[in-house]
Amino acid sequence: MKRLRPKSVRNRLTLWYVGVLACILAAFTAMACVFQFTILRSQVYHDEIQDVETVEGLLYFDTQGILRLRQDYYSHPQSRLLVDRLMEVRDLSNNILYRSDTLKSMSLGRSDQGVDEGGASFNERTEKLDDGTRILMISHRHPVEGKMLLIRLGYSLAPVIPRLERFLLSLLLAFPLALVLAGFAGYRIARRALAPLETMASRAEQITANNLGGRLEIENEHDELGHMAKVLNSLLSRLERSFLQLQRFTADAAHELRTPLASIRVIGENALRPDQGEEVYRDSISSMLEETSRLNQTVEGLLLISRAEAGQIQLTVASFALRDLVEEIIDLLEVVTEERNIAVVQRNPKESETLVLADRTLLRACVLNVLHNAVKFSPVDATIVCSYLKVERNEQKLLRLSVLDMGPGIAIDDRDRVFERFFRVREVRPSTEGAGLGLAIAKLAMEANHGYIYFDPASQNGALCHIEVPIP
Amino acid sequence: LGDAVSSHRVLVVEDEQKISDAIGKGLRESGFDVTIAPTSEEAFYVLHSLRPDMVVLDLGLPRRSGMELLRQIRSMNIQIPVLILTSNNSLDDRVAALDAGADDFLLKPFSLSELTARLRAILRRGRQPAVSEFGLADLQVNLDTRTAARGGISLQLTLREFDLLVYLFQNHGRTVSREMLARDVWHETSRFTPLDNVIDVQMTRLRRKLDDPYPQKLLRTVRGVGFILGEPSE
Predict the structure, then answer these.
(1) What 8-state DSSP symbol labels residue A4?
(2) Cβ contact A306:A249 at 8 Å
(3) In this structure, are residues A305 and A444 in contact, taking their beta carbons and an 8 Å threshold?
(4) Could you report the per-residue pLDDT of A366-382, keeping only the tens digit for each?
(5) Which residue, of A241, A418, B40, B96, has the fewest CB within 10 Å?
């Protein structure tokens, strides 16, 4: 069964269409034939009634009292359906008074008569003669010269049958022609309807990783195919976006990796020049190892970011006091802040007790990066202020931790770019240079936690970083 | 502790020759007896013929992977400590390796000092000597009273400084890297946290208390590698 199924939707549609049409045509033909037969029959009855009325005027009793039909008057009906009148006349006592020669002594209808056969009006019915001829006959009572007679008049059905056959034949001839025409039209329509699909398919085939910018054409965006094309196009857009991101990421990464590699190479080449002392070797190797650990940090950071962007980092969300986390980080950084006599103070003790809902490890990485930056960029004897405030954003309740340092601040243009990976503020001394991924990771950490991180544009002195964490 | 490992044979299964040579050299200098096998098949042969005391196993081997070898070793009920080397830092890999019966897990690139320290830790496992007092030159550290003194004069150390000193003591004579300190003293699980700065400053402060007042310096920085607590140098 499966093997007979046509492969293309177009052929299947056409086949179904033709099949259904054939069924409908067959039913239609049957109904038309029945209808035609009914019309012909009623026409025959109608003509017969007229014939009966004519014949009634031609009947008379001759001098011997025998009933006769006047022959000198042409009394045959015009209808071509009526050939060879069959007639029988009986009196009410069922004596046969007249029988036409065409009957060849056969009885027309039953030999007895019903109580009121032909009494009310013209009775119409079909009968069968003894020789098997099917006839349509009329019974009617009519007085002739004062005597009530029952007139039975009939005609053979035979001339009707060929008519019906001709009618059926013409229908049957038209039948396959109609099917072929309809099938052809159906095929064309199906092909036209499905043509956009083929265009889409061939267009989609041309779209590869190298030209993800290509889109499917949309003829009518409100029909089903247009809708599908739209859905596919938005899929392509998403793919293109992430692909571009990936390309940029790879390019950035390669660039970042190349810098330490270049240092290692140059240092190595220098060290291998002849007549270098042990001191030079030691120094060179140490430098190379330092570059290696920088490379390693970059790679670790990149892997972390790519995993976070791919959504592969599993969150362990818990509720905890943000203040505890901040204090833990301040403790961790204490040696550094003490060394440079930097004070880190916390404001709004009441708000700071508020519980937040987040992945503690990720949030810790974020706050640690921000605070570490604040310490790094603040001068000796500076004060870093951490303050807390409950805010609402898009009907989401958040606790905002604001970290204000006394460093050079961030240029307006750089406020968003600092969160890009590998972004570094240019004036920074090389010694404080990290992998340039800290804030990118902080931002990813906040995004994963459904929070926000941004630098306040209004801050006049020092950088003011806001970290907003959801409240349960 | 240094002498305790002298008789230990380590099988290093690593296909990258530069790395296996470097590991072999480093471990030999630390007193281990090293055999190198570049493939699983060879490793399996060495396991049976030389009966090493521990295995350093790279996961990315040609043909049969390190993980397969590990499973085979464990399925044959060979109770040999195995330290896994891998370049894939995914939690799944770590869990899979530990499930398959690995004793420890080290991510590439690693420092030689860390590898040596881990191997020693595996050897020490289960028979940790209950020493509560260490001494190095005129430095005395008491774990029970959590006090340290140099030349009989008590050093005023913070909790973190004391932990740091103990850790350096346990690895004395050997370099400890910043990664090792971050993990073992600061207990930092993520490798991407800006701790290097904190560690350096902390080390400077410890040195200020430990070494600055004395002519004999015990704590040295090995640039590009880490720190070492050792016999006094001028």
Answers:
(1) G
(2) yes
(3) yes
(4) 999 899 989 988 999 99
(5) A241
